[in-house]
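Anyone? Bumping this.
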Amino acid sequence: MTTTRPEPVTERPASTRLESREDRTHRLSVGVLVLVVGVVLVVLTASTGDVARFALSNAFDEVQLPTLGLPGVPVVVVCALLCLLAGVGFLVGRLSSRVRTLAGVVAGLAFLLGFLTWAAAGRDLPFPVSNQLSGTLTLATPLVLGALCGVLCERAGVVNVSIEGQFLSAAFTSAVVGSITNSIPLALLAAVVGGLVMAALLALFAIRYKVDQVVLGVVLNLLAAGLTGFVFDQLVQPSSGDLNSAPLLTPIPIPGLSALPLLGPVLFEQNALAYLAIASVLVVWFLLFRTSWGLRVRAVGEHPEAADTVGISVRGIRWSAVLVGGVFGGLGGAFFSLAATGSFTKEMTVGNGFIALAALIMGRWHPVWATLMALFFGFVTQMASQLQTLNTPMPSQFLLVLPYVATIIAVAGLIGKVRAPAADGVPYDKP
Amino acid sequence: MVSELLGWVLRRLGRWVPWRDVLITALAFVLAFLVGAVLMIVSDPAVVGQYAYLFTAPQLPLGASWEKVSSAYAALVAGSVGGWVPLTETTAQAAPLICAGLGVGLAFRAGLFNIGAQGQAVVGAMAAAWVGFSWHLPPGIHLVVAVTFGMLAGAVWGGIAGVLKARAGAHEVIVTIMLNYIATGLLAFALTTTAFQRPGRADPISPVVDWNATMPRLEGSRLHLGFVLALAAAVLVWFLMERSVAGFTIKSVGLNPHAARTAGMSVSSSTVLAMLIAGALAGLAGVQAALGPNVSGTPTPLSGGLVGSIGFDAITVALLGRSRPLGTVLAGLLFGGLHAGGLAMQSQAQTSAELTTVLQALIVLFVAAPALVTTVVPFLKARRAPLTGTTPTGGLSS
């Protein structure tokens, strides 16, 4: 019999509770990051102008909201102090996890406000808040759809690096069909077909021929770029008037709601694809977590042997998940040709498929989190282009890489290790 | 006697040469070129129009198709291997692909999917070009310093991804993708500063690199020192991976990190080392773009698009070369030839050079799916050999 009584764990104060090495590293790296951010804000105080103005309405809105004016230096100083406090809180480690989350959120918002105040203070133009928010949603539309495509594939155990290729082929088919038929619904249908063709190739080679799926994704991207580029050079460009002038998606204001101040133009005056993207998030969430098909998808992605044992067709479910994903990937691709320019140009998706992939991994393979990550990415990209028009002291090239730096920081410092579905990327050999 | 000897030689060779792989690769080529031919025919309205006479005058559509396909492929072959100058063009195109492909392949074998060869090559080209045009050193030394700086820059860029993966568990695919964009942005920014922009120019272009920092070439051809460097790099990588402790560690970690950790190897330092070397090799590819002489004999000045898509093509080179040095050299030469020939095909046969991208993708796809090739060509099936595909370790499911 032992003589020493083990100390009951439940009575320990939060600060001395055992912390795994991984959690500790994560907490410390977040703390250091938040501290650095605070120091950056302190440094920025020196170059902050008098008043930072934030315009809540566009010039053309019916209801004009006032333009907010914030005193530059005090706001930046307060934000810097908040960041420093939160950083110290993380490093000391005496915060309970709930307070820590709160501290993280406060630090993030404080940095955002401080940074924007610094950027907008003393400029001739106010920072357009309304534009910022609606631009976020527009830029995030293809990313959300692409990330949903990836979520469906990877939850079923098929790694999808070829979201970019699906975007590109869908952008091409929708531009050409849209130009020939001059009809938006048919163009969207063509985009879905374009996405489905690439998805079917992914499924065929990943599920039937068991090709390494990351390799496959890279090759399919190359194939999509080559095919669309070749046909574009040979057929479409020589007669671009007939084959490359698709109708543009126009913003559809929802009657009543779009007249709301601030939120109206942001949420209820978007194009059809943006509404589709928002609806798709709900649809995918419902499919994955509230239907038996979704349960099967998750089962074959986590433990295909077990799923097979209870009579689920692993290959069949994987095929269906990849194809359903292809529908969303195709809709995302339509954004590039139908919402932005009305025409196709070579490699016009410029890496958005990879950004969607990043959003999906940062969002931990969950449709709602992946959407939030896509929105975050859209927000930073839109902010970079807004700040360019304000003539901030930052060179515009730095602003343009801001989203990518933010992603690296998020992946390295804030998100920590993520866990993919257990059978993601593993082909299933039926015994 | 002769046949016995021949049989012995063949058996002996069979141990060294994977005949089945060679055969499947060759068939993958044939299939890819067939698909390419179909693509050319269907994308030419004049040729497709002839198919209305398929049953009345079959020689018309078939002749037109043959004319179209044969002229394009003839230009492709002539532009890549049809003579001394085309051959050296092939080596010039292949050299950076080989270097960056070696880097991608090495990272593959460490269990890392390095999509960042593009960014590593961009910073490598930036550093090498900057040393090349802003410093003025004696002949020989200048070139060595410029190459070293380029490789160091690439190593740093790759190392960032390695350290973040090892320390913070950041997914290397995301980090390298983002680093690609950041490198491109950095180059665009640098070309607007006085340190990089050519005096008196408003567009983003750098001064011409000093003659002392230019890679020497054979007069009148495009064969320059870069190709020799690429071959040397391949030998070095082979030595590192097959004959050194560091290489053994890298391979072990790539095959099974848990087992390697149990055996006392450091997974994180192996990850960082692999990414450093991979970055340096991709940086060398960028150096070649910055310091290698073009047709006129001087290097092309640094601009936004100088590196092209070397880093992305390198991924396919590494895949086709099965991440092995010899395979990478052969695959690099092949795709270098496709690039060189594609340019000739575009100018002589009015066929877009994008066709070579399609061929490149199809070849890798078919090689990676041997089961598909044996389905299309059934007689291979009878041999009952195990189907082994290219499955470099590493992927998104870590």
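Late reply, but here is one note on the structure posted above: Residues 314-341 of chain A form the longest helix (28 residues).
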